[in-house]
Amino acid sequence: MRAIVVGAGIGGLAAALSLRRAGCEVTLVEQTARFTEVGAGIQLAPNATRELRRLDVLDAVVAHAARPSHVSFRTWSDGAEICRYALGREAEEEFGAPYLLLHRADLHGALAAAVPAGSVRLNTTVIGIDQDDDSAHVTTATGERLTADVVVAADGIRSPARQWLFGKDEAVFSGTAAYRALLPSDDVTDLNLPPLAAWLGPDRHFVHYWVRRGELLNVVAVFSTEATAQESWTARAEPGEQLRAFTGWDPRVLAVLERAGQVLRYGIYTRAPLTRWNLGRVTLLGDSAHAMVPFQAQGAAQAILDAAVLGDVLTDATPADVPDALDHYARRRISAATSMQAASAQAGKDFHLPDGPQAQARNARMAAHAAEHRFLPQAPAWKTDVPDRQPEP
């Protein structure tokens, strides 16, 4: 079995490893000339770290990660704790894998290091994908034509492959944007911050957590906006812009934002849910299939789960089996990923409720749930397992 994976982000790298584990010969095609350190913090729940263990990269990821004991939800103006949930040893014992916080580049680096260098083609831009009954083909910007039994398009939120397969549809601005920054731990030690916290306020929420074994504090300050914001990893905020946007918030939040130095600003985009991800021998994976707002911290996890299921359905498959196997992959993943898209969007609305009866009711619901349950409301999804072989119902 020959496979081509288009895009060497987290989803594409996980797919390459999962397909190699399934016995495929994999070529990973990436348009950038080299891997660089982009992005900031990322959270990985046990549903993702369990699969990283199967791919034999969990130890490498853990070496760069922080392990939070709990997550704390707080009110925006005075920092009063609404509720907290266990994330440390209790969660690991319950779900069979750890909850980790890390820099996106560290996760990407661990995955990339596990893919044989000979399988990766950097500086290669894909300009077309087509197929016939027997094989699928990828055409590059230099005119080269690569052939495989299956093509996996992990080419991101603005996926050209999605358009080639299913027609034009654009990424959708979510109505939210965010400031983000990384601060050395020594700069905020005096603030006595929780290991992972979300501060909730009208049209705003503020998240912070440790990455790189606690050496850096990752900060994400989200705000609602009607003005379309640029989607960028590198666009800089104006000096002091983040402080003006969060005027009146708890002094600890303002202290973090003031000490942040250079702050980046980016718009948050999504894609409309699809009813199918695959066509013949070609399928979508990760953000190209189900880009979502990050308010359940499940975007990367869902891409990793896609990769796990894809490898599962192609284990022991022959080239003739590929179209049916991709049908099975999509059936097993579309419902879960679409539900997580919706849950993430709803979380953003809940986090941004105005002060008064609505926010009070939300806080009461959260406190009641936490009093009855040890783990986050989305924790049942953490039990979702991808066995080595799962019979199709």
Q: What is the gyration radius calculated from CA atoms?
A: 21 Å
Helix percent band:
25-40%
State the name of the first-level CATH class of the largest domain: Alpha Beta
The average pLDDT value, as a whole number, equals: 94
Give keywords:
393 residues, alpha/beta, FAD/NAD(P)-binding domain, D-Amino Acid Oxidase, Chain A, domain 2, 6-stranded mixed beta sheet, 12 helices, 25% strand, globular
Task: Characterise the protein shown here.
With 393 residues, the chain is of the alpha/beta class. It folds into 2 domains: 282 residues, FAD/NAD(P)-binding domain; 91 residues, 2-Layer Sandwich (D-Amino Acid Oxidase, Chain A, domain 2), CATH 3.30.9.30. 33% of the residues lie in helices and 25% in strands. The protein has 12 helices and 18 strands. The chain has a 7-stranded mixed sheet with strand order 5-4-13-14-15-12-16. It has a 6-stranded mixed sheet with strand order 7-2-1-11-18-17, sandwiched between helices. Helix 2 packs parallel to helix 10 and helix 10 runs antiparallel to helix 11.
